[in-house]
Design a protein that fits this description.
This is Dihydrolipoyl dehydrogenase. The chain is an alpha/beta fold and 512 residues long. 29% of the residues lie in helices and 23% in strands. It folds into 3 domains: 209 residues, FAD/NAD(P)-binding domain; 113 residues, FAD/NAD(P)-binding domain (3-Layer(bba) Sandwich), CATH 3.50.50.60; 106 residues, FAD/NAD-linked reductase, C-terminal dimerisation domain (Enolase-like, domain 1), CATH 3.30.390.30. The strands form 5 sheets. Strands 1-2-3-4-5 form a 5-stranded mixed β-barrel. A 5-stranded parallel β-sheet has the order 7-14-8-9-10. Strands 17-18-21-20-19 form a 5-stranded antiparallel β-sheet, with helices on both faces. The structure holds flavin-adenine dinucleotide.
């Protein structure tokens, strides 16, 4: 009898939260291998060791890993290019726009005191978009190359389960094909959650997909949702001159995973750059029937109503798993109340050879989380073991300054009644930040009060997204703050702020 485990119902899907995942609970419904699992095939010709449905980060990484292990693998992807949300309409295009609009903003506002004289600076939006497309097409073609290199077949089309081992593909070029797999990995990703009453046209009422492709700078933009995607895209258009107002239901920006102190500091810095915020505010309704969009808001707890006018409204209230048309009804697979496919800790559904990874199941909706799961899921198939540490998955917001964190934040530790110590170090006291005239923000460590073991690292400041890798490694290895502080960090680097914040947690920082 093959035992399966309980679904990870306690895991959080809160978009990009990076929050720790609770301990795994023993089986609620042990299953047995059934006859269907052992059935043979009519035609061996179409048989694969592994079929992957979805060629996003989760799917393409799983396919490459399986190809490297010598499995006969096909990856079904319906989009014209590989790489999924991340490469086509997510991480990559948004970071291209964030990087280039930051440069533009810096040239406009931050050159004089550096002795750089610039005149006649203006933005060419069409070229900005072209630069973004160059990055995207280079990277998506790169995945195609890696598929060839690792003997992965890309089946271009939409896959749906015909039975537990058979996936029918509606081919892009027309016609159908049936593939049969010993193992199947579902990696169909996620989609933007719509806002009731507003019709997404990706021009006037947009999701992040529209926000990375606007043809001109809107005069007024309202962002519904002050999470990472809303703030990143709001930043892009604010830097280009839009008057951006972010409406957020919660009392802080950045989502629940962001440390409240960091969120407060970040909000101040973004407000200084021109973004406006309405926290503790809910959008009650919207009207997109005329040229502009009217958004009605009121205090989250009820109160005075207000109407905001916008040329463009960005709906950024989160993402939801995408599993439409997969034909689950044909094989009896279940989703939970949030549309997440139910799996055990080895990513298996109740049909053990069908696994699910990435955004369409539990955990934070992050590309690197999807990638970790892809490697682990294939290792479970090929070796019988795999590993993902959900307590050490970093989150990064690529605004300027960047915000990054890993592990638990202060509000979570307080809620759990954990006794902890705090150590902070400001970039204004760091020699490299001072040299670069880029001194906003700080590094914050949270450690166990008794053992000094690191529980969380939170950074708002220059290069936070790169620096958090050191915090993640420290957390992964169960390091103490003293371990980090006694490790030599090159001078002058921003990472010295990291070391000094660790030092400030159990002792005193030297330079502050
Ligand atoms: C604007 C934006 C910015 C982001 N920035 C970051 C970031 O900076 N860092 C980060 O870590 N994460 C970021 N993310 C999140 C990240 O993009 C996702 O976590 C990641 O793409 C999830 O990968 P996935 O493979 O699970 O799903 P996806 O990337 O969504 O891929 C799923 C793929 O499956 C295909 N598919 C679906 N159904 C079928 C079917 N039936 N047959 C065939 N193909 C199918 C889809 O076409 C799609 O290509 C961002 C997301 C957005 C929207």
């Amino acid at each position: 009898m093959l035992k399966l485990f309980a679904p990870r119902t306690a895991l959080r899907a809160s978009a990009r939260s990076g929050a720790p995942i609770p301990a795994f609970r023993p089986s609620a419904f042990p299953l047995t291998c059934n006859a269907a699992f052992r059935r043979g095939y009519a035609s061996e010709a179409e048989e694969r060791d592994l079929i992957v449905i979805g060629g996003g980060v989760a799917g393409y990484v799983a396919a490459i890993k399986a190809g490297q292990a010598g499995l006969k693998v096909s990856c079904i992807e319906k989009r014209a290019t590989l790489g999924g949300t991340c490469l086509n309409v997510g991480c990559i295009p948004s970071k291209s726009l964030l990087n280039n609009t930051h440069l533009y903003h810096q040239i406009l506002h931050d050159t004089k005191n550096r002795g750089i004289v610039v005149d006649g600076v203006h933005m060419d939006i069409a070229q900005l978009m072209k630069a973004k497309e160059t990055s995207v097409s280079g990277l998506t073609k790169g995945i195609e190359f890696l598929f060839k290199k690792n003997n992965v077949e890309w089946v271009k089309g939409t896959g749906a389960f015909a039975d537990e081992h058979t996936v029918d593909v509606n081919l892009v070029e027309g016609g159908e094909r049936s593939l049969r797999g010993k193992n199947i990995i579902v990696a169909t990703g996620s989609e933007a959650t719509p806002f009731p009453g507003l019709t997404i046209d990706e021009e006037k009422v947009i999701t992040s997909t529209g926000a990375i492709a606007l043809k001109e700078v809107p005069k007024k933009m309202v962002v519904i949702g002050g999470g990472i995607i809303g703030l990143e895209m709001g930043s892009v258009w604010s830097r280009l001159g839009a008057e951006v107002t972010v409406v957020e239901y919660l009392g802080q920006i950045g989502g629940p995973g962001m440390d409240a102190e960091v969120a407060k500091a970040t909000q101040k810095l973004l407000a200084k750059q021109g973004m406006k915020f309405k926290l503790n505010t809910k959008v009650t309704s919207g009207d997109d029937s005329s040229a502009s969009v009217k958004i009605n808001v009121e205090a989250a707890k009820g109160g005075k109503e207000e109407t905001l006018d916008a040329d463009v409204v960005l709906v950024a209230i989160g993402r939801r798993p995408y599993t439409a048309g997969l034909g689950f009804e044909n094989i009896g697979l279940e989703v939970d109340e949030r549309g997440r496919l139910i799996i055990d800790q080895e990513y298996r559904t109740k049909i053990p050879h069908i696994r699910v990874i990435g955004d369409c199941t539990f955990g934070p909706m992050l590309a690197h989380k999807a990638e970790e799961e892809a490697v682990a899921a294939v290792e479970y198939i090929t070796k019988g073991y795999g590993h993902v540490n959900y307590n050490a998955i970093p989150s990064v917001m690529y605004t300027h300054p960047e915000v990054a964190w890993v592990g638990q934040n202060e509000q979570e530790l307080q809620k759990e009644g954990v006794k902890y110590k705090v150590g902070t170090f400001p970039f204004s006291a760091n020699s490299r930040a001072k040299t670069n005239l880029d001194t906003e923000g700080f590094v914050k460590f949270l450690s166990d009060a008794e053992t000094d073991r690191i529980l969380g690292v939170h950074i708002v400041g220059p290069n936070a997204g790169e620096m958090i890798a050191e915090g993640t490694l420290a957390l992964e290895y169960g390091a103490s703050c003293e371990d980090v502080a006694r490790t030599s960090h090159a001078h002058p680097t921003l990472s010295e702020a990291f070391k000094e914040a660790a030092m400030a947690t159990y002792d005193k920082a030297i330079h502050f």
